[in-house]
């Protein structure tokens, strides 16, 4: 028996040492001397970046400069002298029978703190808030757009942008300073009538949430206050959740900046809409502080319906959204995913349709302009969110989500989904690819004739 086998036997029979790298902040805002690593081990271990070594026990902070760290965080680190690379590097915590290793090259930006979770490594920005989800038992209504809906009273409104004046009363607004495509002309006009704050931040890539608070009344929606797309409005009363969202509103005023460029006016429309009144327990999440999307998918058992304008599986490492859907399919969950009629959805639809128990349709309807709603239905609960299903909506943006625990609401949203899935004009993803190919062939034919 050689020494390698003897060492492996020793590792198996020896008591397991717990040692973990817990947090890394390699490129802090402000003074780079405040950069640090936080580790924990239950015996003397060596932390190293292959340039400097530190012998640590228990929980320890290792910073670049003690004074800079103290000024930023209010206490002194246990060690100083480390110099971390902004672009990522291997760091190690070496204990008697295991080594923990980490490299942050998967996502790099100023102000990012990487931290360990039960699922692996994650990250947050230094100035991100930390609002916990809030539960309450409420009475309210769900309205499916297109619909006519006017918000009346005195209160606050948060949105990515405001696409139409559907307000009567006295309102204060926070909106993204630089939405894709520019600020709508309607918003520019409204900013002369109401008090507007335009938000911009390096930490939040977009301020994409959509909510309003009037006293103890709360409105959460998937839409930018224009009701011609297929969308969802949740309107209810809750003092607890109203207080939470007021706190979010006034917290985010610290990101106020100048208004960005103004875009042209857009046409609007409305429809009859669908509505249900409900009494149920709900839970509101302020994202990215807490994100219910992955847990919702992972906890689905019988079926899972997902409606979204699009899905972009690109992530920082791996593809956790696709993994969560695939894991649901392996549990025997019947998954239906409905996407809007965008060309960019063709490839992801083909990918998802290749997974057993998963069926994807790309839909187009005369009833609404576009599918813009983002919602999930499964096993006695519904999740409605402002977040698009990409790395910005699910991680980097300011978003909002509400989970409603009620079989009546589940059945209502299930029927809304199936009506759009079954009864409207729909485009199968494979059929759309064939049509696209046919158009390309025709174009090539005429180009050749012209060249002749």
Automatic annotation (TrEMBL):
Transmembrane ranges, per UniProt, are 427-447
Instruction: List the Pfam families.
Output: PLDc_2
Q: Which domain of life is it from?
A: Archaea
Q: Where is the Phospholipase D-like domain?
A: 295-421
The reply on keyword Transmembrane helix is: yes
Indicate whether Manganese appears among the record's keywords: no
| UniProt KW keywords | Membrane, Transmembrane, Transmembrane helix
What's a BP term from Gene Ontology annotated to this protein? phosphorus metabolic process
Q: Which Gene3D superfamilies does this entry report, sorted A to Z?
A: Endonuclease Chain A
Q: What is this protein called?
A: Phospholipase D-like domain-containing protein
Q: What organism does the UniProt record list as the source?
A: Geoglobus ahangari
């Amino acid at each position: 028996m050689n020494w390698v086998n003897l060492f492996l036997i020793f590792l198996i029979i020896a008591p397991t040492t717990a040692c973990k790298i817990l947090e890394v902040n390699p490129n802090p805002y402000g003074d780079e001397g405040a950069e640090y690593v936080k580790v924990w081990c239950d015996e003397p271990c060596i932390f190293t970046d292959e340039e400097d070594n530190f012998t640590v026990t228990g929980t320890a902070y290792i910073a670049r400069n003690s004074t800079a760290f103290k000024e930023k965080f209010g206490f002194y680190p246990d060690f100083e002298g480390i110099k971390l690379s902004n672009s990522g590097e291997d760091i190690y915590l070496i204990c008697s029978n295991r080594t923990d290793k980490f490299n942050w090259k998967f996502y790099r930006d100023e102000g990012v703190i990487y931290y360990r979770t039960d699922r692996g490594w994650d990250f947050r920005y230094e100035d991100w808030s930390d609002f916990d989800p809030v539960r309450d038992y409420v009475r309210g209504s769900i309205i499916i757009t297109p619909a006519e809906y006017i918000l009346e009273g005195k209160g606050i409104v948060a949105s990515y942008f405001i696409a139409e004046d559907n307000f009567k009363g006295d309102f204060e607004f926070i909106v993204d300073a630089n939405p894709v495509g520019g600020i709508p002309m309607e918003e520019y006009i409204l900013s002369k009538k109401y008090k507007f704050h335009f938000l911009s931040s390096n930490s939040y890539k977009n301020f994409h949430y959509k909510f309003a608070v009037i006293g103890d009344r709360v409105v959460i929606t998937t839409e930018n206050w224009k009701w011609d797309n297929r969308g969802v409005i949740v309107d209810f009363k809750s003092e607890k959740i109203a207080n939470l969202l007021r706190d979010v509103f006034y917290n985010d005023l610290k990101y106020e900046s100048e208004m960005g460029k103004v875009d042209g006016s857009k046409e609007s429309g409305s429809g009859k809409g669908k509505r249900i009144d409900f009494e149920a327990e709900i839970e509101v999440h302020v994202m990215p502080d807490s994100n219910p999307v992955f847990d919702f998918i992972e906890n689905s058992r019988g079926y899972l319906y997902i409606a979204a304008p699009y899905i972009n599986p690109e992530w920082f490492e791996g593809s956790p959204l696709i993994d969560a859907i695939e894991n649901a399919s392996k549990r025997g969950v019947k998954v239906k995913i409905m996407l809007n009629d965008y060309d960019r959805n063709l490839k992801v639809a083909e990918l998802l349709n290749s997974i057993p128990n998963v069926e994807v349709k790309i839909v187009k309807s005369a009833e609404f302009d576009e599918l813009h709603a983002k919602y999930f239905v499964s096993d006695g609960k519904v999740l409605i969110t402002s977040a698009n299903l990409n790395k910005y909506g699910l991680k980097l943006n300011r978003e909002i989500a509400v989970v409603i625990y009620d079989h009546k609401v589940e059945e209502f949203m299930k029927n809304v989904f199936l009506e759009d899935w079954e009864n409207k004009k729909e485009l199968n993803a494979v059929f759309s690819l064939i049509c696209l190919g046919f158009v390309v062939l025709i174009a090539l034919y005429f180009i050749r004739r012209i060249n002749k």
